[in-house]
Amino acid sequence: MIVVKVGGSAGIDYDAVCADIAARWKNGERLILVHGGSGETNRVAEALGHPPKFVTSPSGYTSRFTDRQTLEIFEMVYCGKMNKGIVERLQRLGVNAVGLSGLDGRIFEGKHKDSVRSVENGKVKVLRGDHTGTVERVNTHLIDLLLAGGYLPVLTPPASSYDGVAINVDGDRAAAALAVALKADALLLLSNVPGLLRAYPDESSLIREIPAGDVATYLEFAQDRMKKKVLGAAEAVQGGVKRVIFGDARNGQPVSAALGGQGTVVS
Ligand code: ADP
């Protein structure tokens, strides 16, 4: 089993990702796709007059402040436009894909975090009314049913809180938790960069290999949102996933290239 997470940043070629996945799926490989949608969510939120607000925690992690209205816009884009766009591409390629959020069948579950600490002008503020959390549990029953029936699952945040409330969760870490729960052979984290760069944005500074035990020490090279990917990779390898690859989804055959060792390989 391979878990492929494709991001939501500008430049990602979803046609290339879907064509590659479809070819491999038809060859008998079992895959699950998890996707993001941050770039499009930002655009739609601006257009709807509710611009995105990002907060940086005291430990340096950036996340989207998700009030109820933001959550609804987030669902429109992630579960609607992005998810159905990917499912349609796969259907056109002859793959019977099914798109679900982590809320459906409680595939992704975690604690609802109502407040977040945010560093603003050097001061720490507490913001309430946040609908976020972290995936702590993956309920694989529905996924197992789909796979047994020959369907390719296409999954996206939000997740469900233990009380059934929709929560915005990081897609990379959700994919990592899924890869652990399914005992996946590999987790691919595909984005609009060649992999983890030692000196971002210099693409020639690509880090090619990271020993599994050392991955957390590479957090220092990752800025803002790349940090969550490195954290997700650390969680996946600690949970028993043999290989995590940060790969490039801008063109070519993104899944095959990553599985062939291009990008940053954590093993
Ligand atoms: P996605 O939505 O595609 O999953 P993110 O935007 O969350 O991806 O994270 C990828 C982004 O992280 C890259 O587009 C890049 O701007 C940024 N980044 C920060 N530090 C690094 C780094 N050291 N190497 C590669 N990318 C980095």
Concise synopsis of the structure shown:
By secondary structure, the protein is of the alpha/beta class. It is built from seven helices and 14 strands.
In total, the number of strands is: 14
Output the CATH class name: Alpha Beta
Report the uncertain regions: none
Shape descriptor reads globular
Q: Supply the number of structural domains.
A: 1
Please report the distance between the alpha carbons of the first and last residues. Answer: 16 Å
Mean pLDDT: 97
Helix proportion: 25-40%
User: With helices defined by DSSP (H or I, 4 residues minimum), what is the helix count?
Assistant: 7
CATH topology (fold) name: Carbamate kinase
Report on this model:
The protein contains 7 helices and 14 strands. With 267 residues, the chain is an alpha/beta fold. It has a single domain (2-266), classed as Carbamate kinase (3-Layer(aba) Sandwich), CATH 3.40.1160.10. Strands 5-8-2-1-11-13-14-12 form an 8-stranded mixed β-sheet, sandwiched between helices. Strands 7-6-9-10 form a 4-stranded mixed β-sheet, with helices on one face. A two-stranded antiparallel ribbon has the order 3-4. The model has no long low-confidence stretch (mean pLDDT 97). It binds adenosine-5'-diphosphate (ADP). This is [LysW]-aminoadipate kinase. Its EC number is 2.7.2.17.
